[in-house]
Write a structure and sequence with these properties.
Layout (H helix, E strand, L loop, with lengths): L8 E4 L5 H12 L3 E5 L13 H12 L3 E5 L6 H15 L4 E3 L15 H29 L2 E6 L2 H5 L5 H21 L4 E9 L11 H4 L8 H7 L9 E5 L2 E5 L2 E2 L11 H6 L1 H4 L6 E2 L9
Parallel strand pairs: 1-2, 1-4, 2-3, 4-5, 5-6, 6-7
Antiparallel strand pairs: 7-8, 9-10
The structure holds 1,4-dihydronicotinamide adenine dinucleotide (NAI).
Length: 290
């Protein structure tokens, strides 16, 4: 089985470097026409230049692929619209959206300024919302679309100094959980990737000797599978240095204590209530009173 993007149009946000660049190059190598979006700023989101995106476009063109650059910001509604308009006026459709752009403003919660919290939510969560909102009617109309969110182990499990980033990253999973339901009947599927890779974002965190094992290119196969025609819908896939796994929100059977249960009943049954053995993922939200 081979996965091809021949005849498809893809938008990759934050594709001027790191993971986004790797996704964009491989999509193009497999036939997609690609909008390479990148604001081209510093890791904290300041500054901006179209150079990074243009360089990736040149790389794609040199290898015989088709691409255009877009220097808009995902956290600006018009910036998000502009990359979709660029795709539509160049090629008339959008099959794939990879929400990948991201920044960091790490600080422990006791020291964080609310502006540093807000901007991280604006880029990661609202950026994904704006870009998805701009492609959604097009994908529904086409009866085809594949959208990828980029979460993080910090979103799934937490990390010191990353309350802003973790909140914004897990919010993308919540966003996906409802999109996967709303898009299904129009063949618009949404998945999420949780990568670990050596990029500028992690260069101070990942020891040098391990960096070569964590190339962004080792994450891209998972990203491409999750935006392919054969993609599942609503999966969180973790990818790090050649290891691929799925993360999920699960629920246990709990304990039936009755509608008159007291806080003391909860305390004395907490071991049973919180025992996750045999816990399973659940389908759509449902209230089980039986
Ligand atoms: P990176 O810093 O190399 O790439 C992020 C790109 O997003 C940069 O090129 C940057 O210019 C661009 N960008 C930032 N703000 C933007 C905006 N408002 N509009 C458009 N582009 C913007 O870092 P990396 O590692 O490639 O990150 C890619 C994604 O993967 C991010 O969402 C990051 O949070 C996520 N991630 C990365 C992990 C890793 O181990 N590298 C771990 C977990 C998640």
């Amino acid at each position: 089985m081979s996965i091809s993007f021949e005849g498809q149009v893809a938008i990759v946000t934050g594709a001027g470097g790191g993971l986004g660049r790797s996704h964009a190059l491989e999509l193009a190598r497999r036939g997609a026409k690609v909008v390479v979006n990148d604001l081209g700023g510093a890791m904290d989101g300041t500054g901006g230049s179209s150079e990074a995106a243009e360089k990736v476009v040149s790389e794609i063109k040199e290898s015989g692929g088709e691409a255009i650059s877009n220097g808009g910001s995902v956290s600006d509604r018009n910036g998000a619209k502009s990359m979709v308009e660029d795709a539509m006026s160049a090629w008339g459709r959008v099959d794939v959206l990879i929400n990948n752009a991201g920044i960091l403003r790490d600080k422990s919660f006791s020291k964080i300024e609310l502006d540093d919290f807000q901007i991280v939510v604006d880029v990661h969560l609202m950026g994904a919302v704006y870009c998805t909102h701009a492609v959604w009617p097009i994908m529904r109309e086409q009866n085809y679309g594949r959208i990828l969110m980029t979460t993080s182990p910090t979103g799934l499990y937490g990390n010191f100094g990353q309350t802003n980033y973790g909140a914004a990253k897990l919010a993308q999973v919540g966003f996906m959980n409802s999109l996967k339901i709303e898009g299904a009947k129009n063949n618009v599927y949404t998945n999420t990737i949780a990568p670990i890779a050596a990029t500028r974002m992690t260069e101070s965190l990942i020891p040098e000797e391990v960096q070569s094992k964590l190339a962004p290119e080792s994450v891209t196969p998972a990203a491409l599978f999750l935006v392919s025609e054969d993609a599942p819908n609503g999966v969180i896939m973790q990818a790090e240095g050649g290891r691929f796994s799925v993360a999920s929100i699960v629920e246990n059977t709990g304990a039936k204590l009755g509608a008159d249960a007291t806080p003391e009943d909860i305390a004395s049954n907490f071991d049973m209530i919180s025992d996750l053995q045999g816990a399973k993922p659940k389908g759509m939200m449902q209230i089980n009173l039986s």
